[in-house]
Amino acid sequence: MSWFGLVWSNLFRHRVRTGLTLLSVLVAFLLFALLRNVIESFSGGLEVAGVDRLVTSPKYSIIDPLPLAHLNQIAAVDGVAAVTHANWFGGYYQENSNFFPKYPVEPREWFSMYPEYRIAPEQLEAFANTRTGAVVPASLAEEYGWSVGDRIPITADIYPRRDGSRLWEFDLVGTYTGPPGESEPVTFLFQYDYFDEAAQFGSGTVGWFVVRVVDPDAAAEVASRIDAAFENSLNPTRTSTEAEYQRQFASQIGDIGLMMSGILGAVFFTILLLTGNTMAQGLRERIPELAVLKTLGFSDTGVSLLVLAEAVLLFVVGGALGLGLGALATVALAPTLETVTGVFQLSWTTVALGFALAGLLGLAVGAVPALAARRLTIVDALREQ
């Protein structure tokens, strides 16, 4: 029997116990993959084609509205090439679970600001000229079975209509797509003018402004000029890159990285205790066998490496299975979670970190039993038989 075969057979000599331990490690690394995805999504920000865009938002809280009148002042700032705006509408389609972002926007200005979003010219014109018009990502239309010409009801949870009704209806006039090879957009877009006229409150306000700068290298200076223009106003602003804006959005929820890291720390601490106990119990049962191996010529170092390899193999196999399931779960969850987190995918960095962590945990768990096996004397071990 080969050395690896000996390690494998010893590891699975108690199939039920090893299987349950392996399942625990698998679940731990499945959680690791998914939570690392969340951390990277929030910390990495949006993947956007435009490096020349800034976002001007309320300085103190994302729920504070900004006056639409800010638009002209921002447009007049030196270094600003164009500016448009959007707002968070909320709401859901038919059921609470059918959630996706919805923004009231200026049609032509929005698609001019985001040229990477592709829409047929005639559909863009229809969007601009239809008061109740809306356009949606092609993938979203396919998911819900919508076709151009459909009337889409949205139930508001933030903005009721002036007549007290929470039912908003939009006419689907087109679909749009994102850049090839990148994540599909997920935002339902409709006419800001319609929203401004029909909403019960918030008239003349927006959630944030999107600004294109003339020179991307001077973006920081332009951001400072914009914020300085409103520093002493009733509605001060904070201007940043789109990626930084998403991180600010996440910070309203809390320190995502700290929360996810805390959960992972608790999970892996528990796994260390569980597998450490399993390995210690296995060592006690195999003391006479280890003595026989030493009698047959295995060195102290060879026996200790045999025990250590079992622990490392257990974690590497469990980690590989967990990361594999994490990759499958990421693909399944991405369409839903990307509406909140931005790009949600399992990176090769996370995979490499997962395997490295599996190896380190295996070494940590196997170190004590391996040291005990190394110190074991043949005479003392055989007495316990």
Name the poorly predicted regions. Answer: 45-49
How much strand content do the residues show? Answer: 15-25%
Radius of gyration: 29 Å
Please give the largest β-sheet.
6 strands, mixed
Tell me, briefly, the overall form. Answer: elongated
In helices, the fraction of residues equals 55-70%
How far is the first residue's CA from the last residue's CA? 24 Å
Structural class per helix/strand content?
Answer: alpha+beta
| SSE string, helices as H and strands as E | HHEEHEEHEHEHEEEHEEHEHHHHHH
Count every beta strand, where a strand is a DSSP E run of 2 or more residues: 12
Total DSSP helices: 14
* Average pLDDT over all residues: 84
Model description:
This protein has helices spanning 3-11, 15-44, 70-75, 107-113, 121-129, 138-144, 192-198, 219-229, 242-253, 256-285, 287-295, 300-341, 348-375, 378-383, and strands at residues 53-58, 66-67, 80-86, 102-105, 118-119, 133-137, 151-155, 167-177, 188-191, 205-206, 208-213, 237-241. The protein is of the alpha+beta class. Helix 1 (3-11) crosses helix 12 (300-341).
List the helices and strands and how they pair.
Layout: H1 3-11, H2 15-44, E1 53-58, E2 66-67, H3 70-75, E3 80-86, E4 102-105, H4 107-113, E5 118-119, H5 121-129, E6 133-137, H6 138-144, E7 151-155, E8 167-177, E9 188-191, H7 192-198, E10 205-206, E11 208-213, H8 219-229, E12 237-241, H9 242-253, H10 256-285, H11 287-295, H12 300-341, H13 348-375, H14 378-383
Helix pairs in contact: 1-12, 2-10, 2-12, 10-13, 12-13
Q: What labels would you give this structure?
A:
single chain; 385 residues; 4-stranded antiparallel beta sheet; alpha+beta
